[in-house]
Specification:
There is one protein chain. The chain has one domain. The longest helix has 27 residues. It is mainly α. The N and C termini lie far apart (59 Å). The mean pLDDT is 94.
Length: 71
């Protein structure tokens, strides 16, 4: 898949310098940044959904009883 991005000039300059210094492509850095950011955003929205609807909340006593750890 090909994506075209419009970057602010400063960011494009930084990306170009980094790619030249490391002999990697600008695309490889863009792909890496997207992978990391998408994973963080997926985690963020999953957490948000769980906090909005946490389901049943168990007390320690209930968990101990369910696991057969009662004193």
């Amino acid at each position: 898949m090909t994506i075209a991005l419009r970057l602010p000039q400063e960011l494009e300059d930084r990306l170009t310098i980094l790619a030249k210094k490391t002999h990697r492509s600008k695309s490889s850095y863009a792909r890496e940044a997207l992978e990391l950011h998408i994973e963080e955003m997926e985690d963020f929205y999953l957490s948000k959904a769980i906090l909005a609807n946490p389901g049943k909340i168990y007390s320690l006593e209930e968990v101990e009883k369910m696991c057969g750890l009662e004193d």
